[in-house]
Amino acid sequence: MKKFLALILAVAMIASVSMLAACSGSGDSKSGSGKDAKGDSSDKEKLTMATNAYFPPYEYYEGEDIVGIDVDVAKAIAEKLGMELEIVDIEFDSIIAGVQTGKYDMGMAGMTVTEERKQSVDFSDSYATGIQSIIVKEDSAITSIDDILADGAEYKIGVQLSTTGDIYITEDLGDAAASRVTEFQTGNDAVAALASGKVDAVIIDNEPAKSYVSAASGLKILDTEYVAEDYAICFSKDNTELKDKVNGALKELIADGTVQKIIDGYIKAE
């Protein structure tokens, strides 16, 4: 009987040891797998892109996701550099300040290269071109920028704060800009003000202008452009290493046709 009990105890002990070993092996496998999976993503250096996601088709919301030309180009750059892209949606006029202080690695928001901005940040090569257009109501007496700038004109102009449309019209109107130009946080707000009669025209980039006009009734884009410009990515002047890396990747993506393919996917030839 004692031998029988001893045999049972021995078998139980062997089974327990085997189970512990199996559990230990299983735990190690999961840990290793988890570590590897973590290494594939979180071990990558982050590339933080500051944008203002109300500028279709360059950046805009599709559900809860930010999509658009800039987003796809940034993803392609991050992939080429082996980095993990993180997009932060902020007010447009906060982008340059955030990049300057190092809060964000780069700014990408259909941003035009201007001499004024070059005093604060560095820019990549241009990856796209655009024009500033004028949106008016269909029955508007405004036919070109000349009507807005004419002596004695009192037309009220809506712009998105700190965009080149804001900069250009403010400079062109001079002292009259204080009473005639209204700055809004988003292009959406500016166009809504036009539709409701609070302003007489909105100056904004042509591609977003198309999106806004197609989504509203009674508005049109004037045939004549205001200003032609180049879009680029901005960086802190203290981060030339990252700028050079991104610029190198961007040059390759332009050369192999990736950037143009992305743009063509959002902007159809007319």
Task: Outline the structure in words.
The chain has 270 residues and is α/β, with parallel strands linked by helices. It has eleven helices and 14 strands. The strands form four sheets. Strands 8, 9, 10, 11, 12 and 13 form a six-stranded mixed beta sheet that branches. Strands 5-1-6 form a three-stranded parallel beta sheet. Strand 3 and strand 4 form a beta hairpin. Helix 2 packs across helix 10 and helix 2 packs antiparallel against helix 11. It is globular. The N terminus is likely disordered.
Tally of separate helices: 11
Cα gyration radius (Å) = 28 Å
Range of strand content: 15-25%
- Largest β-sheet summary: 6 strands, mixed
Reading the helices and strands in chain order gives HEEEEHEHEHEEHEHHEHEHEEEHH
> In terms of structural class, how would the helical and strand content be classed?
alpha/beta
What distance separates the N and C termini?
A: 95 Å
Write down the overall geometry: globular
Instruction: Kindly report the average pLDDT value.
Output: 86
Percent helix, as a range, is: 40-55%
Number of strands: 14
Q: Flag low-confidence runs.
A: 1-40
Précis, in short:
The chain has helices at 2-41, 69-81, 95-100, 115-118, 145-149, 164-173, 177-180, 187-195, 206-214, 240-255, 258-266; strands spanning 46-51, 54-55, 59-62, 65-67, 84-89, 106-107, 122-123, 128-137, 157-160, 181-184, 201-205, 219-221, 227-231, 234-235. With 270 residues, the chain is of the alpha/beta class.
